[in-house]
Amino acid sequence: MTKFKVSVSRYTLDRKLPPGSPAWKKFNSGFENVEVTLSELMIAIHRGQSITTWHKNNWRSSENFICGQHIGLDFDNGNKTSSIEHLANDSFISKHASFLYTTSSHTPEQPRARVIFLLDQPIYQPINYTNAVRSLLWLFDSADKQCKDSVRFFYGSVNCEMKKLGNVLTIEKVKKIIADFQESEKKTEKKFDSNYKAPTSQTEVYDALRSINPWSISYEEWVNILMGIHSEFGDDGLSLANSWADGQPGEVEQKWKSFKENGNESGKVTIATVFGIAKQ
């Protein structure tokens, strides 16, 4: 039977870990790179085991990425468009997705589901992997935009509802979607609120942000840019950040509240991060 390279957590969880929990260190170092069949992967998720991409040094971080052979999309709008029944009938998902399952926050009144696409071969370059994820997000506007970095993990869901489709998404199809996505980006002006007028003190940063498409960078870089703006301007920079970030409603504000006065706990993220990414 076909096996897929997926990193599976050694631990089972029946709920999300709270921010700041000391268990995060154990969790992030608790994944095992394995080769599993579709059925084995579904069983692990049903038990509550989380999954992510293969990584080295026993630590889940973008620098340690080895390869990815799955792509996950979250649909958590809390309406029928996030239900397994609705998603399974989508023409692309029905032809290319491997399985779907309800997430731990799902209720019959507010459905939430995750779609997993297993690939016919692993992707070994992190930039190619993130491009593959972004291209699928481009196809589905209602999917969670945060799920786009190379070591994004997905929680399992104890005793969840599951639907097996059994498809495998080919790399050739992925390359075609990436090409279509990148061509679309060329035709689309950089996402930025043209009605926003930056204060004089923020003009230089505003100009730098105009050269950064929030959809063409990793989620980690996206958060670091918000941190950089926060570290330089504090709450006065929230409007600037919101005008650029193209986040979901309330997403930027939620991140903003989690930042320390100097941007983050280590103090390493400053406004220089914004200019550095702009020059790439």
The residue ranges in which pLDDT falls below 50 over 5 or more consecutive positions are none
Q: What's the β-strand tally?
A: 8
Oligomer: single chain
Return the string of H and E elements.
EHEHEEEHHEEHEHHHHHH
What percent of the residues sit in helical stretches (DSSP H or I)?
25-40%
Alpha-carbon Rg, integer:
19 Å
Our measurement of the CA-to-CA distance between the termini, rounded to an integer number of angstroms, reads 43 Å
Beta-strand content estimate: 15-25%
Features:
single chain, 280 residues, alpha+beta, 5-stranded antiparallel beta sheet, 3-stranded antiparallel beta sheet, 8 strands, 18% strand
Structural commentary:
This protein has 280 residues and is α+β, with helices and mostly antiparallel strands. Helices cover 37% and strands 18% of the residues. The chain has 11 helices and 8 strands. The chain has helices spanning 23-28, 38-47, 84-88, 91-96, 126-139, 171-187, 203-209, 219-233, 238-245, 251-258, 271-278; strands spanning 4-12, 31-36, 49-52, 54-55, 65-75, 99-102, 113-123, 162-164. It has a 5-stranded antiparallel beta sheet with strand order 4-5-7-6-8, sandwiched between helices. Helix 5 packs across helix 6, helix 8 runs antiparallel to helix 9 and helix 8 (219-233) crosses helix 11. The radius of gyration is 19 Å and the shape is globular.
